[in-house]
């Protein structure tokens, strides 16, 4: 972790001391990102303007709790974090503002549970494409993730 | 309420005696036959009796739902694709949208086509939708609109199954083991007639 920060600082130092503060910030982001690992990222796509759902696993191997506060994608006007639940025979869905991932914890965004909801497509997408998504954390950290665009039938 | 409880008890007792009991929840004695007046994907008025002749699964949802509805329909599609060709011709899935202002016939057509040829989208006037949801004793509720005019809808999570004569048979929930739901769908679709 320390060498990572040092490397970034070193690179940036060549471009001038004025960038030092920025470099420190970036360095911190890079180091922390290496403790977050996303896998199995899939975007379930439906035809037309029907919203899509994003599913993935996120593991925090760092020493500190991280808080996921949202996501964005150039392919959609808006992305929200949602939870589906069932209560007395009714399917509910509600937005959540944040989700904590404790040190060593692995969370799963999966069908009929937590999901990203992708609304209003900007770019044409079809099955087999890749969609770029950035996960946003409360400490300003941003984690780019490439989602595979899939049919809900494949989930 | 008392009547419903009694009917439930009666069906439980009957199911115990019958070799025809379903693995999921038997609703043969507590739910009325398939009947409704709605609008199909072509914008035509249709009735429950138009869908007799095939085993029919009915799910109430809305297309703006990105997670629960498509996953439920996809899983039904998986089960249907596992059937042999002949049995597959004997089953259809009606997706009844409780969100008619967004789910026009065109939207529903494009949506259900994504799941397979067995899927048919229906919606209608609010009063027509209410007549169906009341008939099967389920509810739905619109959430508040956000600044973009988007809203979520809380809806029933159950899948209702009817035989080819339109008689109510069983009801599937997420809490039922997938293998039970699959076995019941397969048996329903294989029933001769
Ligand atoms: Cu959602």
Automatic annotation (TrEMBL), chain A:
The keyword Transport does not apply. Keywords: Signal. This is Copper(I)-binding protein. Pfam families: PCuAC (PF04314). It comes from Vreelandella songnenensis. Residues 1-33 form the signal peptide.
TrEMBL record, chain B:
PROSITE patterns: PROKAR_LIPOPROTEIN (PS51257), THIOREDOXIN_2 (PS51352). It holds the Pfam family SCO1-SenC. The keyword Metal-binding applies. Disulfide bonds join 65-69. The keyword Disulfide bond applies. GO terms for molecular function: metal ion binding. Gene3D superfamilies: Glutaredoxin (3.40.30.10). Keywords: Copper, Disulfide bond, Metal-binding. Residues 25-190 form the Thioredoxin domain. Cu cation binds at residues 65, 69, 155. CDD domains: SCO. Belongs to the SCO1/2 family. This is Protein SCO1/2. It comes from Vreelandella songnenensis.
């Amino acid at each position: 972790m320390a060498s990572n920060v040092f490397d970034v600082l070193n690179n940036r130092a060549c471009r001038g001391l004025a960038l030092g503060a920025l470099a420190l910030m970036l360095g911190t982001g890079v180091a922390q990102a290496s403790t977050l690992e996303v896998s199995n990222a899939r975007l379930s796509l439906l035809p037309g303007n029907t919203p899509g759902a994003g599913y993935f696993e996120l593991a925090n191997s760092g020493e500190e709790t991280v808080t996921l506060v949202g996501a964005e994608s150039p392919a959609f006007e808006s992305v929200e974090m949602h939870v589906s639940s069932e209560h007395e025979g009714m399917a509910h869905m509600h937005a959540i503002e944040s989700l904590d991932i404790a040190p060593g914890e692995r969370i799963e965004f999966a069908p009929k549970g937590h999901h990203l909801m992708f609304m209003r497509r900007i770019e044409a997408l079809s099955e087999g494409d890749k969609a770029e998504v950035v996960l946003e954390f409360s400490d300003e950290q941003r984690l780019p993730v490439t989602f595979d665009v899939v049919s809900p039938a494949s989930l | 309420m008392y009547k419903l409880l009694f009917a439930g008890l009666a069906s439980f007792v009957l199911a115990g005696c019958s070799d025809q009991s379903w693995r999921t929840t038997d609703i043969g004695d507590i739910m009325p036959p398939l009947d409704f007046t709605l609008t199909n994907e072509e914008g035509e008025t249709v009735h429950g009796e138009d869908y007799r002749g095939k085993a029919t699964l009915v799910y109430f949802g809305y297309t703006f739902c990105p997670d629960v509805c498509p996953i439920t329909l996809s899983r039904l599609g998986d089960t249907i694709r596992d059937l042999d060709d002949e049995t597959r011709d004997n089953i259809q899935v009606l997706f009844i949208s409780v969100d008619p202002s967004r789910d026009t016939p065109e939207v529903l057509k494009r949506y259900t086509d994504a799941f397979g040829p067995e899927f048919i989208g229906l919606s209608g006037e609010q009063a027509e939708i209410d007549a169906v949801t009341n008939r099967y004793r389920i509810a739905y509720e619109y959430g508040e609109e956000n600044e973009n005019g988007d809203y979520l809808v809380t809806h029933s999570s159950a899948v209702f199954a009817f035989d080819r004569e339109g008689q109510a048979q069983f009801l599937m929930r997420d809490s039922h083991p997938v293998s039970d739901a699959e076995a019941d769908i397969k048996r329903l679709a294989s029933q001769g007639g």
